[in-house]
Design a protein that fits this description.
162 residues, alpha+beta, 2 domains, 5 helices, 6 strands, elongated
Length: 162
């Protein structure tokens, strides 16, 4: 690892710790040339997921688009950024384990709706209105009535069956 201060490539690791729930390792290093201490992070390199859009186009999965879509649905709702980040991390993990290299945008949208349904019903309906492309108020009412029939699972409740 090149020292950020002097450019020397010789260093020694002083301390290593797990970080981000075990997803990365934080290392404190010391340059053997100038004795400057610096921190590096090591994490797993994830395969890039491609999202197949409705019109057949393919584009790289963009975490920022996912976060922004959920934030927009949760605007002016009592939902913390931590809850949104956790939902995004869970969606990403599910996509990586279930989808492989490619996934349909409908799968991503369905996962977002599942997470929003557990977080906040208003945010869920907002997202559903865009995702399902509601054309009139009747479609809103149908979705709201369907929500009443579904069982809302708590985020804290463990899933028994998948």
């Amino acid at each position: 690892m090149r020292c950020p201060k002097c450019g020397n490539q010789e260093d020694r690791v002083i301390d290593s710790r797990s970080s981000k729930d075990g997803a990365s390792i934080r290392r404190r290093r010391e340059c053997t040339g100038c004795l400057h201490r610096f921190t590096t992070y090591e994490e797993i390199e994830h395969e890039l997921i491609r999202v197949i859009k409705r019109d057949g186009r393919s584009e790289p999965f963009d975490r920022r688009k996912l976060v922004n879509g959920i934030i927009k649905a949760c605007e002016k709702r009592p939902i913390s950024m931590e809850a949104i980040e956790k939902a995004v991390e869970e969606i990403e993990a599910e996509l990586e384990t279930e989808s492989g290299r490619e996934t349909a945008s409908s799968v991503v949208g369905a996962k977002v709706m599942e997470k929003l349904h557990a977080l906040d019903q208003v945010a869920y309906v907002r997202y559903a209105s865009v995702y399902r492309q509601f054309q009139d108020i009747g479609e809103f009412l149908d979705e709201i009535q369907n929500m009443g029939r579904r069982v809302k699972t708590s985020v804290l409740q463990q899933e028994l069956f998948k």
